[in-house]
Design brief:
The structure holds two protein chains of two kinds. By secondary structure, chain A is of the alpha+beta class. Chain A contains four helices and nine strands; from the N terminus they run βββαβββββααβα.
Chain lengths: ~120, ~375
């Protein structure tokens, strides 16, 4: 299952026409202690590069963008109870939402793991 | 907490020390400052349980001296200097002609001078305002070769006492008193005060000694360095205002609940900027008040969020965040005085969502100042 990364520090796993989205370990480290995650409801249409979720840390609110265009099919119910999962397991249990892949060609502009690590190393 | 100043950022005396401790640095008040080291919640909790060292060297330290100083400063600040004795510190306010707040500050009496600590972001304007209104006989020194460190928390006194000698033992220094001490061979002044609600100290020391002293204090088992992020969450829990957010030229100290900063004699005598409005508000009340809000759920309401009573817009949040101690969102807001009583049920709007909020007494977390054993 290929994993792609955006320069806004989201990751996206794609399996056929369904994708899972979250934020990277680097992103959670920058945000600090996360106290609330506002997720899009199933059925919400999201657009590549546009707001899809909001992460509230102790310090501030930060937008999370949709890495691709599609429709949200499921929001991670675990984050409602335990938003700190985003800190402890950002790239596994702390996933944000699942969505459809409206246009697979949008994935082509995203980074793979190695390119993303290179990108982060320069920040 | 953010600063929009486009000016080049100056490094503080401890800049490289902060980086060596793993701090993430951000622009604040014209300087690069540490926002956090290990994480805001861990640093917050450490300070509430042990002791935290805060670098507040961005703040302005001013020394005023000269013939007729008390009368000259009383013409600018609503303070009663006749009751401020050597070794005492007091909170005061710099007001404009309309009674709006230009800054909040601390005034201490030294044997032959008055020592002021003002906010970092406003210090240059404050110096200009003071210089404009003070007569030529008064000397205003900006002590920009001094650093300022705050050591805060229930274990602060234990840690500091191991390293200071002075005219009085540290235990004789009660809340809002200050004295001269020797700390690791350096001459310093120490005030028992701070911005966390905990017992603690503010230490003015030569900038050249800042690294030595920060290293020494953080070598104590009770002490860790703490960043601006936890400084903000600690002061919010303590119900203390932050200039530029909770206080501004558009707010009066009376609606902010800072009447204690207008000393009693000055309320009757006046003779300070904005006295007409301030003393009228003290007598008649204000249309709005600055209150604490406890918010249901986990979603914090931030500065700018609107406050409603039913369909009516009744106020605005000026500071808000998540309280690590209480485990829930808290905020400070100006609300209509009719809605300001503790227990009043209101709503705060965040991204189109209405959150239940209750007007709560402040501080949210009780102050634990040291007033003597």
């Amino acid at each position: 299952m290929p994993r792609y990364f955006t320069d806004e520090h989201e990751w996206i796993d794609v399996e056929d026409d369904l994708a899972t989205v979250g934020i990277t370990d680097y992103a959670q480290g920058q945000l600090g202690d996360i106290v609330f995650v506002e997720l899009p409801a199933p059925g919400t249409a999201v657009e590549k590069g546009k707001d899809a979720a909001v992460v509230e840390s102790v310090k501030a609110a930060s937008d999370v963008y949709a890495p691709i265009t599609g429709e949200v099919t499921e929001a991670n119910p675990a984050l409602e109870e335990d938003p700190a999962l985003v800190n402890t397991s950002p790239e596994e249990d702390g996933w944000f939402f699942k969505m459809t892949v409206a246009d697979p060609s949008e994935l082509e502009g995203l980074m793979d793991e190695a390119s993303y690590q290179e990108f982060v190393a320069k920040l | 907490m953010d600063s929009d100043e486009p000016l080049p950022l100056d490094p503080l005396p401890l800049d490289s020390w902060h980086r060596a401790q793993g701090a993430r640095m951000v622009p604040f008040a014209g300087y690069e400052m540490p926002i956090q080291y290990e994480g805001i919640v861990a640093e917050h909790t450490w300070t509430r349980e042990h002791a935290g060292l805060f670098d507040v060297s961005h703040m302005g330290q001013l020394l005023l001296s000269g013939e007729g100083l008390d009368a000259a400063l009383e013409a600018i600040l609503p303070i009663d200097l006749s009751t401020l004795k050597v070794g005492q510190q007091r909170y005061s306010l710099l007001l404009d002609e309309n009674g709006g707040v230009l800054d909040d500050l601390m005034v201490s009496r030294w044997p032959d001078a008055l020592y002021l600590v003002v906010n970092g972001a406003t210090k240059w304007d404050d110096i200009a305002t003071l210089r404009e209104h003070l007569p030529d006989e008064i000397t205003l020194q900006h002590l920009d070769e001094q650093a300022l460190l705050a050591l805060q928390g229930p274990k602060a006194a234990d840690a500091l006492a191991r390293h200071v000698t002075g005219e009085h033992p540290l235990s004789a220094l009660t809340f809002m008193k200050f004295g001269r001490y020797t700390l690791a061979g350096h001459a310093v002044t120490i005030a028992r005060a701070g911005y966390t609600g905990e017992d603690g100290f503010e230490i003015s020391l030569p900038a050249s000694a800042a690294e030595d002293i920060a290293t020494l204090l953080c070598g104590e088992p009770e002490v860790k360095p703490i960043g601006l992020g936890a400084r903000d969450s600690l002061r919010l829990e303590a119900g203390l205002p932050l200039y530029g957010h909770d206080l501004s030229p558009e707010t009066s100290p009376v609606e902010a609940g800072l009447v204690f900063g207008i000393n009693k004699r000055r309320r009757t005598e006046g003779g300070f900027p904005g006295a007409g409005r301030i003393n009228r508000e003290i007598a008649e009340g204000t249309a709005r008040k600055w209150v604490g809000l406890k918010i249901e759920g986990r979603l914090p309401a931030r500065e700018g969020a609107e406050v409603f009573a039913g369909a009516d817009l009744v106020g605005t949040v000026t500071s808000g965040g998540f309280s690590p101690t209480l485990g829930q969102p808290i905020a400070m807001a100006y609300v209509a005085s009719a809605q300001a009583a503790p227990g009043t049920l209101l709503e705060v709007e965040v991204r189109g969502r209405r959150l239940a909020a209750t007007v709560s007494p402040t501080p949210f977390v009780p102050h634990r100042y040291y007033r003597g054993s």
